[in-house]
Amino acid sequence: MKKLTIALVSMILLAGCGTRDGNGQPKKIAIVVSTLNNPWFVFLAQTAAAKAKALGYESKIFDSQNNTALESDHFENAIASGYNAILFNPTDAKGSVINVKKAKDAGIPVFCMDREIDSRDAATSQILSDSYSGCIDLGKLFVKALNKKGNYVELLGIVSDDNTWNRSKGFHSVVDNYPHLKMVAQQSADFDRNKAMEVMESILQAHPDIDGVFAGNDAMAMGAWQALTAAGLAGKIKVIGFDGAEDAINSIKEGKLTATAMQFPKTIAELAATDADEYFKGKRDFPHKLPIPVDVVSATNIDKYTAYGKKN
């Protein structure tokens, strides 16, 4: 009986040691996101924080405001303040690598969420939406919506973000096969709603005769819709986004946006927090990249979806 009691106590101590630091306090997880100016990233960060708490950890959210210098400050703060892991949504695929390497050198694992960095060994894992494949499916829908002909505009995201180009390449791998579909403008709006509205207003002055808009995220799609509405073109031009954000889902229900690609930020955030938990408990064999499939959402299946995911 005494040996059994000792064994049980040992098991309890081992089970708890993953969540506690050397002083017996809960381990801390920093959640560094590119921006909190986009509801999608707010949801991602808050979900990661909630999952970390449920697993027994303290956490704090840091907003990089799409600024690599501020992101660097957050990493230095996390390292100096004794954070045990970082759940990370990068601002720049190349520029963010140095920050992740600093954390790695300090013995702090980094788990990338949604956006990737251009390094195979700096981050412990990278959990990413399958943007390329998702935009192949969006491209097919776009071609069908425009009846294989017409002029269109593409709004790119942040040009230093790999998601921008993965989405664009997936889209063009389909659309470029149709010679009667002509891209009359391609311009970055930095994944930002207000900038997209301004960019779209400018494009419309030079190209008033367009039939469709492909936007690299929902924020830009909604900004483009605002500009089209102001120009009296609402409902005449097909607008497609990417994310599955709340305003885009509502807009599809209302017959405004044509479609979006539903990412699953809850899945991404919770997997990242769970990876950190497993790392603390000894796991080291994480996949370099874990692609999460996305779903195309349009008027034909909108009833199956809600903001940021499927209905239960």
What order do the helices and strands come in, and which of them pair?
Elements: H1 2-17, E1 28-33, H2 39-54, E2 58-63, H3 68-80, E3 85-88, H4 97-105, E4 110-113, E5 125-129, H5 131-145, E6 150-156, H6 162-175, E7 181-188, H7 193-206, E8 212-215, H8 218-230, E9 238-240, H9 246-253, E10 259-262, H10 265-280, E11 290-292, E12 295-298, E13 305-306, E14 309-310
Q: What does this protein look like?
A:
- This protein has 312 residues and is α/β, with parallel strands linked by helices.
- Helix content is 43%, strand content 20%.
- Helix 5 (131-145) packs parallel to helix 6.
- The chain is elongated, with a radius of gyration of 22 Å.
- Mean pLDDT is 93; it is low at 1-16.
Global morphology: elongated
Strand content: 15-25%
Low-confidence stretches: 1-16
Average pLDDT, rounded to a whole number, is 93
N-C termini distance: 47 Å
Quickly count the helices.
10
* Count of DSSP strands: 14
Radius of gyration: 22 Å
Helical content (DSSP H or I, runs of 4+) = 40-55%
Can you summarize the main beta sheet?
6 strands, parallel
Give the SSE string.
Answer: HEHEHEHEEHEHEHEHEHEHEEEE
What structural class results from the helix and strand content?
alpha/beta
Which descriptors apply to this entry?
four-stranded parallel β-sheet; 43% helix; 10 helices; 20% strand; elongated; six-stranded parallel β-sheet; alpha/beta; 14 strands; disordered N terminus; 312 residues
